[in-house]
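Entry for N-(iminomethyl)-L-glutamic acid complex. Fields follow.
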Amino acid sequence: MAIYKKANPKIWSGRTSDQRLYMHEKIKCGPIESISPHSIALLGYECDEGVKRNQGRVGAVDGPNAIRAQLGKMPNHLDSKTEVYDCGTIQCIKGDMEVTQNKLSQMVSKSLTKNALPIILGGGHDIAYGHYNGLADHIGKRKTIGIINFDAHFDLRSVENGPNSGTPFYQIAQDCNANGTPFKYLCLGIRPDSNDKNLFETAIDLEVEFLRNTEFNIQKLKTVSRVIKKFISGVNHVYVTIDLDGFSSAYAPGVSAASPMGFSPDIVLRSLGTIIKSKKLLGMDIAEMNPTYDIDDQTAKLAASLIHFVIHRISE
Ligand SMILES: N=CN[C@@H](CCC(=O)O)C(=O)O
Ligand SMILES: [Mn+2]
Ligand SMILES: [Mn+2]
């Protein structure tokens, strides 16, 4: 079972002004049905069932509200034409992750019918299967969606033990194969200390494009930008998913699979800038926010800053 919870305006708080100086004063709460066209639709995915099934550390169920609490306090530089909505949250009930993913897909499709940009706050990385399906259902088979995943992991585990937070892109690849649609997947920040030999072999079999963590840093900006631009030129739309465990635990300790060896925010911001410039961004999510292991809200602040960057850059 999955339950839709209406947005809670009390989560959105911070300093107050009479000029909408802060994001909590800018963001409106309302269901997707009521949002203005061409707005930004935030949606929570309160689910860590996939992390639990994948033998990870649970706690990401509280991720969406941790991100909202930090984003609300940040300054608002958006013009009055750009509207941002909190469209509520989908809750996973009794471990029914599949129904939760389905509900997410429906809400993502609905936001696209409003020409809104869905930004989904997670939640385990199983968020990606629900999010992608919602984008694909709306777009149809004639157009290609390229997935850009900022992550230490491929998340291409097979589903022999059931779907979980480590399987979403394998599931998408299987569906693409069954539907006769291309599977276009670029992973940025892949680490040999985080993916076994079978996962690298699966990635090669599925013609996944990837940059290892050693190639994904600001010193290699030219190469990174070239790879991203080339990938984007081969697809009609781009779906961006950011797994916070791809960042070094110096920046993102609040995740299930933390590691000091991850990437830094600077290269992610530059990459997001390149993606936004392409005008092909269709949807974005932030996965694996786990407040249980966060330190001084660093990870929640990082997630909120990434969203803050994207919504401001998009509206420029
Ligand atoms: N979404 C995360 N997936 C990773 C988790 C790794 C870990 O728990 O150490 C994976 O399955 O590879
Ligand atoms: Mn990961
Ligand atoms: Mn992941």
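NOTE: Residues 2-314 form a domain with the Arginase; Chain A fold (CATH 3.40.800.10).
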